[in-house]
Amino acid sequence: MIDEKPIDGSRRPIPEPALSPSGRLYLDAAEAPGGTPESQRLRRLWTEDQAAGLLELAGESWGVMPSPILRFWREFARSYLTALCHVPGLETDPSARPAEPGGDELRTMAERVPPMKGLEYLTPEILLRLWRELDERARLEAAGHSGGVSAWLKDRDPNWRLV
């Protein structure tokens, strides 16, 4: 759990992701009630869908992440978005998929996760499942956007666009 410092100067905790024995990534909100509207939105999205929470965490609105755990999961989601941006012909073929990380890359990622609650349950297979869930969630959100994937990415965060 980390502290966020809102405009009024008080400190409110942001819960950190944890992993359940079944491999579900969740925010341990019991440790950090309250918070700013942004952290409440993150909690709501994460409760709705872990991939929605990861996509929210990837946005620039969060600024610098002081927690190594939050930084890791933010970079994981950003890796997916970067791969999505590099899919050739995505605008004309929405079924095109970003390349999934290979076994060695997934093992390396799993080894680099900082200490967190439930780390003993993390495997390369769980990371691959989370990657695929990010893909499903991104496609679901982009399908509801009138401008397609590139416009969805831009609306989500101006720094994300197809390159």
Quick rundown:
With about 160 residues, the chain is mainly alpha-helical. Helices cover about 45% and strands about 5% of the residues. Strand 1 (about 1-5) and strand 2 (about 10-15) form a beta hairpin.
Number of strands: 4
Query: How helix-rich are the residues, as a percent range?
Result: 40-55%
Q: Report the average pLDDT across residues.
A: 82
From the spread of the alpha carbons, the general shape counts as globular
Largest sheet: 2 strands, antiparallel
* Span between termini: 35 Å
Low-confidence stretches: 1-12
Series of H and E elements: EEEEHHHHHH
Strand content: 5-15%
Strand order of the largest sheet: 1-2
Report the C-alpha radius of gyration, rounded. Answer: 16 Å
Q: Supply the helix-strand structural class.
A: mainly alpha
Q: Helical stretch count?
A: 6
